[in-house]
Amino acid sequence: MKKRLVLFFALVLALVTGFTAMTATTANAATDTSLSKVQKKGTLVMGTSPDYPPYEFQATVHGKTKIVGMDVAVGEKIAKDMGVKLVVKSMSFDSLLVALQTGKVDMVISGMNPTPARRKNVDFTHTYYQGGYSIVINKSDKGIYKNKDSFVNKTIGAQTGSTMYNESKKQTSGTTVKGMTSVSDLILALQSHKIQGVAMEKPSAQAYVANNKELAAIPSDFNLSASDTSASVAFKKGSTALVAAANKSVDQIKKQNLVNKTYLPAAGKYLKTNTVNTSMFHYWKAFLTGIEYTLIITVCSVFFGFIIGVILALARMGQGGAIKTGFRWLATAYVEFIRGTPMMVQVMFVYFGLGLIVNLPALTSGIIAISLNSGAYVAEYIRGGINSVDDGQTEAARSLGMSSGKTMRFVVLPQALKNIWPSLGNEFITLIKDSSIVSIIGVSELIFQSNIVRSDTYRGVAPIAVIMVLYFILTFTASRILNYFERRMQHD
Amino acid sequence: MTKPIIEVKNLAKSFGKNEVLKDITEQVDPGQVIVVIGPSGGGKSTFLRCLNLLETPTSGEVDFDGENLTTLDTKRVNELREEMGMVFQGFNLFPNMTVLENIKLAPMKVKGIDDAAATKRAHELLKQVNLDDHADAFPSSLSGGQAQRVAIARALAMDPKVMLFDEPTSALDPEMVGEVLNVMQELANQGMTMVVVTHEMGFAKSVADRVWFMADGYIQENNTPEAFFGNPQTERAQDFLSKILM
What we know:
Strand content of chain A: 5-15%
Helix content of chain B: 25-40%
Structural class of chain A: alpha/beta
Structural class of chain B: alpha/beta
Number of strands of chain B: 10
Shape of chain B: globular
Number of helices of chain A: 19
Distance between the termini of chain A: 47 Å
Strand order of the largest sheet of chain A: 5-1-6-13-7
Order of helices and strands of chain B: EEEHEEHEHHHEHEHEEHH
Helix content of chain A: 55-70%
Oligomer: heterodimer
Radius of gyration of chain A: 26 Å
Number of strands of chain A: 13
Largest sheet of chain B: 6 strands, mixed
Strand content of chain B: 15-25%
Distance between the termini of chain B: 35 Å
């Protein structure tokens, strides 16, 4: 699954770089306007993957969840020096660079190492922090593992798309390397003995060990170049003015040793307050937000999906005439294409791909993608529903002088709707569950919120259990309501 | 000399290679009751459905009130269909609507009549077919005879000039045939122009002005009921009549 996920992202990235390459060449020819653009809009949008304490993580501050950590402090410093406001956007580590290239974010600070491969696609500032790698293990295994070479015939985990992942693969032999999107998942896998160690940056390892008595850290002894262990700020390729401005701030940070003196201790304090109360009830607000967004996405998508579905169904059933044939062909192609591609790819394509033309917020992108997807399925239900209505109904309506449009609207569709109500209900319930896919583009629906709670509390299972129950309550309530309306429609 | 309300000229209709109607030229005068009889598969229903263009003729023309339907655009055909009520063998009531709503739908949505006026008219029509006490029932709770009478009331609600009946009693239990035929007879007595495809010979004898005998895609005989039943001219008609119980 994770492998496929990486493949999707690689595909989207390839597509997107292809597009940007075409548009970017003309933009770069002129003098670089990246800095003045940011100053004009007054905000600097920072992309980060907040599951990597103490670099960046979610903390509850005065009852509100907030992204904090040393990287956020670095971002704030850069924004302040430029005279603009910092906006922090969270998303999965894999999608950060795509978001940067498609203009969803202005910069990426996420403990990212400026590797040569990444340098090909984005520009980096000077490094603001020089770390190293540790391997986190279960405390009970402390005697068994010494460093990276102790894991022969065992499994080491690392965050997908990270340098640790690639180096673990390269520098171990006889060791399986397992990639996962989030570090909290990796820790959970470690504690449930699916894997024996997790490779991560030293400060992160220290944070996890400090917050979880079951864990211990050992040195990794990876042979690393400076670029592999340092963290830099990434900007879109060619934005030299922005990089130059950011470098001034980064140089100051290094000179004054701000990371070690100020940022890391501050982040540590958040970590402490974070873990004081790890009961699920303490996070009810986070879950409530999740329910709210899950419902918004589902209800909007069902509504628009139904409209799209009706239009597609009618287009697919049109007979005669070159125009009608054209529409029929288009609608059929659309339905086949949507049903033949994964919803996850569609969501990413709308967010990142359409993002090149219009800058859509993640929530809107999610609703659009799911509506478009649902429309294709609903179209097939509606087509079946219309076909299930007896021809005699149409004939009776036409013989009364009703046009084909009125016949459809007042006679056929109401009956078709009744016939397909159970299928539509299923679709609604499926959407409640499938809306979870938009978590990958950072919409704060239930899955996304549960991931936040997991990285906040260092508790792997409890939040999953909570959202499982919440999802069930949502779907069960929905199916009861749908049944009520189904009964009300029964006349024969 | 009155002008005919329906004129059919050289009408032919094929489904693929199957020629159902071959060459039909007839006319219906205002106020006339035409009963079309003949063996099954002879094209009677297809003929009736060609009159309001539920089936598109392969060739020939159908004139209604002086306008050739086959040359008109869809909008005008829809308008002229309002003037030709049709009653089907299978009733085709809208199952998701009450009896009253069935009758009100077309007047409100097509003619734009307001709810109060449409309701008033619907109740009048239901009284005419003796079903006003079933106004709020759903079709599924009606007997076949009741359903067909509602279907007649629904067609009449558009104030048609002509009523087309496509085997209106064929799907009914025998004891319910009478109630439907009575309503049709009453309608005929009021002067409604009617074209009725049926197997009810009694109805043909007592109500029809003309009997059209149809077989093999042609109108074989067009005569008064007395002449047709008393002294059929063609061998085909003699053969048909000899086979049915009178």
